[in-house]
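lol ok so funny story. i was supposed to be doing the assay writeup but got distracted and ended up predicting the structure for this chain instead. priorities right. anyway since i did it might as well share w the group, maybe its usefull for someone
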Amino acid sequence: MSFLNGTSFTPASFILNGIPGLEEVHLWISLPLCTMYSIALTGNFGLIYLIHTEASLHKPMYIFLALLSFTDVLMCTSTVPNTLCIFWFNLKVIDFKACLVQMFFVHTFTGMESGVLMLMALDRFVAICYPLRYATILTNVVIAKAGLLTFLRSVMLIIPFTFLTKGLPYCRGNIIPHTYCDHMSVAKISCGNVQVNAIYGLMVAILIGGFDILCITISYTMILRAVVNLSSADARQKAFSTCTAHICAIVITYVPAFFTFFTHRFGGHTIPSHIHIIMANLYLLMPPTMNPIVYGVKTKQIRECVIRFLLKERDNLSSDYRLK
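and the output, tada:
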């Protein structure tokens, strides 16, 4: 087998086969992917810029939102450009080490995404349940430490993926039926025992996703109790409205994640492989695309800042035109 390095059964490279069975429509599939990716980059970089420049948005809630936007950009950029190269230029070959690096970044940033959503739920819990102590509890130092710990948690839990995958023998071939290097997609083409990979993958899903969902659930249970006990209907409405965008972000992130996770493990023989692959791509692309739109529409402060920015830019353009 010429694709193997010596007798170690380690391939020099893999071939990412795109979406098997839909090769003839790869170009058409790439169009919505490219559009969503463009919206994701524009929306998230726009949010980061707005939060950075607007002093009124220098608050814990919006700092966490900027962190979420930054994570979203990295998460979709770790896969989409490579996927578009496969669809547009038929560039399917990826170096073995590059595949491991992509796998590491994909899973690290998805874990980071979940962690930031959990931190945002805790932020809303403190803001609604302890409003007078909000600024003293969530200081910039606390926010920085929380973000760093969330990142380190993802890194430490995902690093073993690369070693477990690297140690597998690949004597069945080097063709991966996927658009990017996903942990189990790579492991499944091995001729070795991947039970450890599967068990560890489940453990990581529980330690990251399960823990974060538990914290989010507890936070919103406490928030709901606090809001119900408010005497003013206006106060209840305001409290609920501050959580609406975050709840939408949770749904957008976890629904495709759960679908991908459970169908990958329990629906392998009943759901076509191309559905798995399309959902795996949407799972990484939908949150980055939709989150800026949701927060732009649902969050009054951001909406007002966007309007002020656009009006300011219009006035600047008008002034430049008059000077000419």
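The chain has a mean pLDDT of 89. The two ends are 69 Å apart (CA to CA).
back to the writeup now i swear
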